[in-house]
Fold this protein.
Amino acid sequence: MKSSRTVTRLCGVTLFAWLLTWSAAAANFVTATPVAPHRGVWEIELPLDVVDGNPFFDIDLKFIFTLPDGKEVKAEGFYRGGNKWACRAYCSQTGPWKWRTEANRTALDGKQGSFEVRPSNLPGKLRQHPQDQRQFAFDNGQWFLHLGDTGYRYVTDTEPLWQQYIDEAAQVGFNKIRVWFCRGRSDIQAVFTTDRKNLDLAYWDEAERRLIYALEKYPHIQFQLIVYGEDLAELRRYSEGDHAAFLVARYAQARFSAFPNVQWCISNDSIISPAAGKRNIAPVTIQSIGRDMQKREAWGTLLANHQARFTGYSFVDAPWSDIITVEDKDQVNGALLLQYRASGNDPVVLDEDRYEHYMSPKHDRYFFRRLMWASLLSGGHATYGGLKTYEAFEGINELKGVQGYLTAVRDGRLADGAADFRHIRSFFDEAGLTLVGLQPNDSMAGSDAHSGKVIAGDRTIIAYLQNPDSSTPEAANAAETPAVCRLHLPAGDWRIRWFDPRTGKWHANPARQEINGGLTRNFQSPFPGDAVLLLMLP
């Protein structure tokens, strides 16, 4: 995490009853101390009987929380509709919390109260790992193995089968979903009423309902909320000082930043350039939004931007940026991830490559399995793409929107690409390993880029032997012959295990074997196709 961010460091535990509400009614003080869950969300609701002026633009309400360790956190309140205002706190510490308000309306100003935060088992917010900034961890200390999906329209009210989509994504093993607020690809206007003088709270309520459903049922799934989608006109209005454009990010943060399952992305698929162009946006615009969001961010929610394919990431050194997110194609050797690891200290995420049903590779299952393993062993993280989820689902056979996932899965036209992702998780779980502190080191496998992807620590070496049958990434399949590579092993008695990434099985013959290090050795997989080689010192 950048030093300029206010963050709570990691502690330990997990939960389901995540959101509790206390209504202050007309009282200034809480008479009985309510109880909130650790790493959950506490909501305070205040009434304002007479609303003079526009509730979104004219009323300024802030809550100052005093945490058990004495630190103060200032968070913005938000309008809930009717005569109700609210504020949410992310319960990062156990113990007694106090709060007070500052507002430009007497009826909201000077309120105060308290609540108690007690242990729970909710994993909490996602952070940069305290021991390895290029990896992720939850606030309970659990390493986050990034297995992403692209489901842009998950919170969109035109997608009625959103629940089935997230249930399906959880079954596959995805734990990060890319989502935007837009109803249309380049149109954020659905969040407003038609005159742009108010927010359409029904639209926001529906988005919230879907985020809460996922949090309650799948607390380990993160949502990368893309605030402005691909609405470059709205971004430009922001830079011109338009108050409505400013309100989108401000209200989103006030309402959702306390959610443990949320991270922020400013925009999607733009070209960062001051030159005129259909998809161009000036870097100063994104920088301005990023700085403003960072300044308002009360709970340390991760923040990044996403730009167009092949254009890299322009904000590596920006103090507000916590993640390097890139879009490219055929990155099955992890070259771009390695490049950006060398340029900054933040996690590097390949958030878009090919899609299984859009820019399809010839052999979906092998390509995406290879992409995911290669990305992880390059010290980065990858996101799968299935359908054109940026387009609305319009008919029963449409392979668009998150609703289209269900059609595609039912008809056997989707899911091959993600079929082996659960095996990645089982590999790390069964071996009792994480990638924290391990460093990419492909040179251990020689100069051939196809020989293997290698990541290593003092006592652990993981090699993914890609074993493609051609040099063309989108057309290659795994070779029918066993994979072979040469590795230079440091001194020691290394234990060898082979893992089949297609089946999720450890090879039983031999299940393990020991070999002396200190020299270069040949390794041949005991089965055909791609393979994972694990070497560990006792």
Observations:
- Residues 1-18, 20-31 have pLDDT under 50 and may be disordered.
- The radius of gyration is 24 Å.
- Residues 265 and 304 are 5 Å apart (CA to CA).
- The chain has three domains: 19-118, 126-428, 441-536.
